[in-house]
Write a structure and sequence with these properties.
This protein has three helices and two strands. The protein is mainly α. Residues 1-37 are annotated as: Disordered.
Length: 154
């Protein structure tokens, strides 16, 4: 015989009580234990179904993966693919930065040329024309920046 300290009841050794009130010999003390068990089974089944769907979705996103692949292969390929995407992103960002720098250098050099021409005794009309060229280069550089930003995000 064992004493259930929580309740203070002595139970025969063949019918020990479990922590949640049911007996350990497989018979439930009440219907609540059985429904809790069924709920646990249903919850676990839904969790497995959700995991299956997530692995299937991940598998579909990975190029060059055979139709039948185990879970460890799917995860390994996903990690490899993400790393390659990160490297591609870094390369594209560097290229974009180089293009922006070259566009800025072109705009700066054109403004130096036009301002130098304006100080060489040119008429006011030529100076205003030089400013409009400078503004045109700045607009072109701005449009190029927008184009680069939009093309890199696609």
């Amino acid at each position: 015989m064992e004493v259930d300290r929580a309740v203070g009841v002595v139970a025969p050794a063949s019918q020990k009580r479990s922590r949640n009130g049911g007996s350990k010999n497989g018979k439930a003390a009440n219907c609540g234990d059985q429904s809790e068990h069924e709920m646990h089974i249903w919850t676990e089944r839904e969790r497995r179904k959700k995991m299956r769907n997530m692995f299937s979705n991940l598998h579909a996103l990975l190029p060059q993966l055979p139709a039948k692949a185990d879970k460890s292969t799917i995860v390994d390929e996903a990690v490899t693919y993400i790393k390659s995407l990160q490297q591609t992103l870094q390369t594209l960002q560097k290229q974009k930065l180089e293009k922006l720098r070259s566009a800025t250098l072109m705009a700066d050099s054109s403004s130096i040329i036009t301002s130098h021409q304006g100080t060489g005794g040119a008429s006011t009309d030529q100076f205003s024309e030089a400013l409009s060229v400078e503004e045109t280069f700045k607009l072109a550089a701005g449009e190029m920046n927008l184009w680069l930003l939009s093309s890199s995000s696609s």
